[in-house]
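Tutorial handout. Part one gives the primary structure; part two gives the three-dimensional structure as tokens.
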Amino acid sequence: MSTSNNRDRLIFAMDVPEPAQARELAGQLGDSVTFYKLGLELMMAGGYFELIDWMISHDKKVFVDLKFFDVPATVGRAVARLASRGVTFATVHGNQGIMEAAAAAKGDALKILAVTALTSLDRGDLDDLGFQCDVAELVLSRARRALEAGCDGVVASGLELPAMRKAVDRRLLIVTPGIRPVENRPSDDQKRVVTLEQAFADGADYIVVGRPIRDAADPRAAAEGMQETIAAVVG
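Part two.
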């Protein structure tokens, strides 16, 4: 495992429409969450970078999940600008050249995560996109190529964790989204999901949780319950 603070292993997906709501929810969660993922919805609302600065000023870690995908030179310049803001993780979604450009521009503190296959995709979706390989084979190939390109880690479903930990260098960070409690199996757009316990047992370094915390009757209690489980599982 790659972090000295087990509480950082829980990354909360701050999927709300406005920065003001994000600040309010972060205040409600308090010290139950130390790491936040900020994605496209908030980016389009305005005030995204001010929210990043606010989070960092409140001693929170930030995962910028914008899945950079453009020509390598453009991605490299975007990552270089982001690296100066104190962000911990950022995602890229593209070919070898894109990943290499991002890795070369990230500086010393920012870690680049390559997206393998979105957890909202299943076999039928990949067939429609023209990928003839097995989902697991695609994820392993992407993970190996990400490490070769200089990326620090990948975003990957928990279903691929055991094979990835056997086949890919342990230096690779694995961040696993699509986490659902046993009693909250998905009725949403996540198709390849696992439980918190399964993800860490199979080798995840971090997990990303959104709706099970955000939509809970008491979000802080839900987050604290997950932190307790992580402490028990990871030790």
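Part three, for discussion. The chain has one domain: 6-234. The two ends are 11 Å apart (CA to CA).
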